[in-house]
Amino acid sequence: MIRTYKFLMRPTVGQMGALAEMLRDHCSLYNAALQERRDAYRHSSRTTVRYGQQSAQLKDIRAFDPERQGRWSFSSQQATLRRLDKAFVAFFRRVKTGDKPGYPRFRSGKRFDTVEWPKDGDGCRWDATPHDPVTRLRLQGVGHVKVHQHRPVIGKVKTISVKREGRRWYVVLTAERPAPEPLPATGSVVGIDLGVANFLADSNGEFVANPRHGQKIAAKLKAAQQALSRCKRGSERRRKAVEAVARLHRKVRRQRLDHAHKTALDLVREHDFIAHEDLKIHDMSKAPVRKPDPDKSGSFLPNGAAAKAGLNRSIADAGWGVFLQMLTAKAECAGREVMAVDPRSTSRRCPEYGHTAKENRPTQETFHCVSCGHEAHADTVGALNVLRAGLVRRGAVPA
């Protein structure tokens, strides 16, 4: 079982400069490798340069430029080249499937924030002594950097990454650990229905409020973005305005992660089996298709784009995808079972006799069966139907 740990680093001023230089030099290597691939394809009869060829050149590159490339770990530079190779593999895959290709782009220093070491001990070392209150990360070319390790790392460290977020530096570890002991069985099963009015409703009639972190900070973010738009490009004032906008976005992201962690942990601790809707979030948040007006050339009919844009913002603000990832990961560690079911008509099907009709849901919150008269909250009905579908798929007797 592979698990990821993320810790805050506390480098000195000199180490921060060395870390910034490390990112800059790896970014230069990435861009040079990308340029080589472009030139080979354009000027050499569409020749494709592979990772193996570029990796074989690293020894000569390090000898030619020992000040910028020779001082860093060989394996981390190989990881940067693999990163570019993965970008090209994904590009060709999208071309074959007919998706938007997204050709790999050159990276500026502001958009290259991560360096990876494929193996602990090869150019880097995670030094976590059990009885030493100070944890250090040794990086070739940087030194021993203090790390705020807020929880123990269980298992053997496999890969190490250093990431810059604003003015902070983080270390991300992946560790291989044995399967943990499952939590004691509770005998409880539950179905959940995700929404925007409430973050989720369960089959027991309970609700988790939607925190709406993005909406709460929208006014501050708007003001910060307006201040950014008035700054001259390349100025110190613009740099500070960019940091202010990024700081607000990072705050919202951390709040969403915290809410997802806590909500998922509560569900995993209380229930042995959790069923949820198999939501296609990317398709749900698409903009509506424009409809040409047959009477006016170059005009379009109203399609509710403004209302749909507001709904899309609410879906993104809720963070369903992050929550479902957290729920799946925590359930795996706790020995719980999570199952995704078809979400179609779950909030329009009567839980008493199974009558399904659009008219059963007259409003966003109300469920009223036109056949038998059953009334309940629409989200609770949806969660109950999700649970029953999950139990049927699991092979158990429906609740």
Write the layout of secondary structure elements.
Elements: E1 2-10, H1 13-43, H2 51-56, H3 58-64, H4 74-97, E2 114-117, E3 124-127, E4 135-139, E5 143-148, E6 156-165, E7 168-176, E8 189-194, E9 198-202, E10 207-209, H5 213-216, H6 218-229, H7 236-270, E11 273-277, H8 281-284, E12 291-292, E13 300-301, H9 305-318, H10 320-334, E14 337-341, E15 366-368, E16 375-377, H11 378-394
Parallel strand pairs: 8-11, 11-14
Antiparallel strand pairs: 1-5, 1-7, 2-6, 3-4, 4-5, 6-7, 8-9, 9-10, 12-13, 15-16
Helix pairs in contact: 1-4, 6-7, 7-10
* Largest sheet entry: 7 strands, antiparallel
Ranges where pLDDT stays below 50 over 5 or more residues in a row are none
Count of discrete structural domains: 2
Order of helices and strands: EHHHHEEEEEEEEEHHHEHEEHHEEEH
Q: Approximately how much beta-strand content do the residues carry?
A: 15-25%
Rg over CA atoms, rounded to whole Å, is: 26 Å
The number of distinct β-strands equals 16
Count the DSSP helices.
11
What is the global morphology?
A: globular
- Strand order across the biggest sheet? 2-6-7-1-5-4-3
User: What is the residue-mean pLDDT, rounded to a whole number?
Assistant: 91
Helix percentage range = 40-55%
How far apart the termini lie comes to 33 Å
Briefly note the structural class of the backbone. Answer: alpha+beta
